[in-house]
Design goal:
The structure holds two protein chains of two kinds. Chain A is mostly helical. Chain A has helices at 2-13, 15-35, 59-71, 81-89, 103-108, 123-146, 155-170, 183-216, 218-225, 231-260, 268-294, 298-316, 327-333, 337-348, 356-390, and strands at 49-53, 95-99, 116-119. Chain B is of the alpha/beta class.
């Protein structure tokens, strides 16, 4: 077990790197625990709408103004067009409704009168538009009901019409979320395990590649070749050491997740996160094997591992949620094992019931990671054999 | 005499280039055999072929009476190799490095511990056990390289230019260590282009050039091959042609060369050549700084055989 022991002796000299990436994981994981108290509660917000009325404030005109005021934030803007334009530009107001002259009369007489609108095309202005449209659609619908044979609204029907509009618009719908998922804890767990992608790649791949490159050094290899120990035996010992270290590191990160995230880790979702991270760790170990076989320059390893760890973490959504990433980036990310690992984490967070059909959503991703691992092992064996032959 | 290595008609070609050309020799038990030759003469290639690190085109190699092959692990277990390039783990200390390489041969922990201590003592690294290679000087690093190759107490040791770029103190230490290894019963194949080391160390010498053996024998036997018997060197600033011609006519003188600062007079044979030269200089009133006499060196033999110097 000479090579096996030496692997761990060299690892011991590089323990700082492992500690550093673990501290980064704890720091970011812990920070996320503090900040991401997210959210299944919704509070309705009110847009800023300014009404410029050129009609008499009575009848349907008054009702429209009251409706808008009741559903929006009051905004005080000077009564001139330049001030309104400035307010729109500086987002002091998001939507301006101009009620034209004789709006009430024209509406009651069955004419289709358009409101003039000014908007700054923000999400808030879209919301304002929804509010105003809702009123106009409702008013038009009741006008169709209460109009006489001439298409006009009589005096006595005007009051009924306004009252019906207000009845309809005042109705609220209660929304109840029936999901039993502890989304807050699950989002913490997802964040943590997504971040593990970076820590595993950076710490494990870097340290293992560094150690393997020492053993694969041409001069050291030549010494081993003239010795009475077979090349196969050394390789077997190194592989065992690599697996042991990977398991150890994975175990530490899993243990940390129990400490940082807590209760959710004892659920089936927690178990799935652990299984997924295990498969990914083994895949990362094979990446290390491959880099260790290809690269002998230790300075180059540092650069390569940074590119791999940071690159795949950014591309696959370890730092930034996947849904925020552009489609092109996600398409490129399909060629990286991290994509399947992080996708699985995201899916685990949404699994309501764990049954065969829900597992079918995550097992293919895990299978892809296993395939990646097999490909990396084959590649590293091919490269090592080719290098040996060349030497 | 028991042959530890038997090389017969060894030939190694790299496409058109013949690196080793029909080489045959034996290494006797308990001797230090020097493979002497300039850079590119085929010393390291010969060693690599013997160790099965390189394929060869023709010939046979037997070590300890058995055919040497890449998977002859029973033979490899008795061999120690010190390569010219330093091959140690930068991340391990002196002790850990020796322990690792010794561990490739010796499985028993206690035995290995003793062997590692012995190797450290042999190369004089007792004070540097916990040092990392980066902290060692070039000479100490060479000693570590040697310790890594011989810690398992092999019966046959290959040393490939182990003293290249080494300070005099480390060189003496290394050479003393090699003698101790021989005294402890090891057979040693020592490749070098330093003729002084060969003269100090080797029982027998093979002179190689362009992959061929030019001469084999003890240093004295090889020196017999040189035509000259003695060489007198005179450090002098001005020496005219007339005087050179006069010296050429002195008894036993073979050749006279003057390079502007020193005059070299070679003698084919004879006694009292140095005294005769001093008498001549006194008689002619020629002033000189230094005068000394030398026996022919292996370099002279090499010069005689190839027309070029060993270090060319």
């Amino acid at each position: 077990m000479t090579a096996f022991k030496t692997f761990f002796k060299i690892l011991n000299k590089n323990k700082f790197i492992v500690i550093m990436y673990t501290v980064i994981l704890i720091a970011f994981g812990g920070f996320n625990m503090q900040t991401s108290d997210s959210s299944i509660n919704f509070t309705a917000s009110k847009p800023d709408i300014l009404v410029v009325n050129n009609d008499e404030e009575k009848g349907i005109t008054k009702d429209l103004i009251d409706y808008i005021k009741g559903n929006s934030e009051a905004v005080n803007i000077a009564d001139n067009e330049e001030a309104r334009n400035d307010a729109l530009f500086y987002r002091e107001v998001h939507y301006i409704v101009y009620i034209p002259e004789n709006y009430n009369e024209d509406f009651l007489n069955g004419k289709n009168v358009n409101l003039e609108i000014k908007t700054c095309d923000t999400a808030e202005s879209s919301f304002a538009e929804m509010l105003v449209s809702r009123y106009i659609r409702t008013a038009n619908s009741y006008r169709e009901i209460y109009k006489d044979e001439n298409g006009k609204i009589s005096k006595e029907n005007e009051e009924k019409l306004i009252s019906k509009i207000n009845d309809t618009l005042s109705k609220n719908t209660e929304v109840e979320i029936t999901s039993k998922l502890d989304t807050n804890s699950l989002s913490k767990a997802t964040f943590y395990y997504n971040f593990v992608n970076y820590s595993i790649l950076a710490a494990l791949v870097y340290v293992v590649s560094l150690i393997l490159s020492s053993f694969r050094n041409k001069k050291i290899q030549r010494r081993i070749n003239v010795s009475s120990t077979t090349y196969r035996k050394i390789n077997r010992e190194l592989l065992m050491a690599n697996i042991m270290f990977s398991l150890w590191l994975w175990g530490i990160y899993v243990l940390l997740s129990f400490v940082l995230i807590g209760k959710i880790m004892f659920t089936i979702q927690g178990a799935l996160y652990i299984i997924n991270s295990f498969i990914f760790t083994m895949c990362a170990a094979t990446i290390a094997l491959l880099i260790g076989s290809i690269v002998s320059n230790k300075n180059a390893i540092n650069g390569i591992v940074n590119v791999i760890a940071l690159g795949s973490s950014f591309l696959c959504g370890a730092f930034v949620p996947m849904q925020w990433l552009p489609d092109t980036v996600l398409k490129i990310a399909h060629i990286l094992p991290s994509f399947y690992y992080i996708s699985t984490n995201e899916k685990i967070a949404t699994l309501e019931n764990i049954d065969v059909s829900s597992l079918k959503e995550i097992i293919p991703n895990m299978a892809v990671m296993v395939c990646f691992a097999i490909i990396f092992v084959i590649l590293s064996n091919t490269v090592s054999r080719k290098k040996r032959r060349e030497d | 005499m028991n042959n530890i290595i038997e090389v017969k008609n060894l030939e190694k070609k790299y496409k058109e280039l013949t690196a080793i050309d029909n080489l045959s020799f034996e290494v006797h038990e308990g001797e230090i055999l020097g493979l002497l030759g300039p850079n590119g003469s085929g010393k390291s290639t010969t060693m690599n072929c013997i160790l099965s690190l390189l394929n060869f085109s023709k010939g046979s190699i037997r070590i300890f009476g058995k055919e040497m092959k890449p998977d002859a692990y029973d033979i490899k277990a008795k061999i120690g190799v010190v390569f010219q390039d330093i091959a140690v783990f930068e991340e391990l200390t002196v002790y850990e490095n020796i322990d690792y390489f010794c561990g490739l041969y010796i499985r028993d922990k206690e035995t290995r511990k003793k062997y590692v201590e012995d190797a450290i003592e042999l190369v004089g690294l007792e004070d540097f056990k916990k040092f990392y290679p980066k902290k060692l000087s070039g000479g100490l690093l060479r000693r570590l390289n040697i310790a890594c190759g011989i810690a398992h107490k092999p019966k046959l040791i290959f040393l490939d230019e182990p003293t290249v770029a080494v300070d005099p103190q480390s060189r003496n230490n290394i050479l003393d260590g090699i003698k101790k290894l021989r005294d402890n019963g090891a057979t040693i194949v020592y490749t070098t282009h330093y003729m002084e080391e060969v003269e100090i160390l080797c029982d027998r010498v093979i002179i190689l050039d362009k992959g061929k053996i030019l001469a084999t024998g003890t240093t004295d036997e090889l020196k017999e091959l040189a035509k000259i018997e003695e060489k007198v060197t005179l450090e002098v600033h001005n020496f005219d042609n007339e005087n050179i011609e006069k010296i050429k006519k002195l008894t036993n003188v073979d050749e006279v060369t003057f390079n502007g600062s020193s005059l070299v007079v070679t003698y084919k044979k004879g006694k009292h050549n140095l005294i005769d030269m001093i008498d001549y200089l006194k008689k002619e009133g020629i002033q000189y700084n230094k005068i000394y006499s030398e026996r022919p060196t292996l370099n002279d033999v090499f010069l005689e055989l190839t027309g070029k110097e060993l270090r060319d």
